[in-house]
Sequence to fold (332 residues):
Amino acid sequence: MSKQIIVSAPGKIHLLGEHFVVYFAPAILATVDLRTTVTIARCHSGDSDILSEDTRIYSGKDSGQARLVSDESERARMTEIVEPIIKKHLKIKTIPPYKLEISSQIPIGAGLGSSAAISAACIAALLSFLKVKWDLNLINSLTYEAEKVFHGNPSGGDNSTITFGSIIRFIREPKTIKPLGINIPERLAQNFVLINTGKPKKSTGEMVSLVKVLREKNPQLFNESLKSQTELAEKLLPVLKSGDSSKFIKIIRLGEKNLEAIGVVSKTSQKIIRKIEKAGGAAKICGAGSTTGPTGIILAYHPDKTKVEKIARSYKLPYFSTTLGVEGVRQE
Ligand code: MEV
Fold:
């Protein structure tokens, strides 16, 4: 590609608050040091290729190398979602032909915000390609538009975290995106393990709809869990600063209980989480989860993380450690 523009965006985890954040509870989210990288360049006359023939998507964390995963869905993302959003925002009818390559270290559909990261990086890359100056507020609001197309009723937490980076406290309404400005003390930060249970059968949008039905059927149960989750999110803030391991474990365990109460944690993942708890740690699903089978990433913590790693190995599940709170969207 000639005159390339490269933009990258990180993945995210929810320390607390997924699903409840859709109904205005606070969520605590952090970026993770896995990135999606988008490279864009103009197609010159004589090039027969147009976007739809030249969008390449690579993904993969476990090998340490990004690898090809899918073309079709990402082509559709560009032509059916990202381009219309940009055209509408800039009030333009056409976009000159371009070549685009997406490589991602973020496992797709595992609760690490791969969808928001790809959209954010594509939007920023396409704006730069069109020589439009952008800032993170613009990227965040356009990425939220893309998230709405994908998920129907997103809270905006994923795109805000990925765009602005760091560790944030997010509330949907009244809109609050507050960077916490903390470095989590090492005794906590060094002992997180992300276990990949595999791609959930249901999409984030489907899981959000399922929770909506549960909330309508059983408002008392939902509201009790939401109240508890709201209190936990407030309690978590000083604990993240102090690095108090036993308080952290208590909060994460209760957070997971609330997620189980609203039915987004499969029996399979509950079993793994109970094992980690029994070994003295805490674990929770991360993202939308699933009612059956794999639930995507399990975020686990243990003061001695080798205990969690051993459990992951016993289930033959891939796992990795990550730095939390890395930079958001950036032009490379
Ligand atoms: C998905 O990563 C998080 C959910 O809370 C949905 C959302 O916040 O839009 C399940």
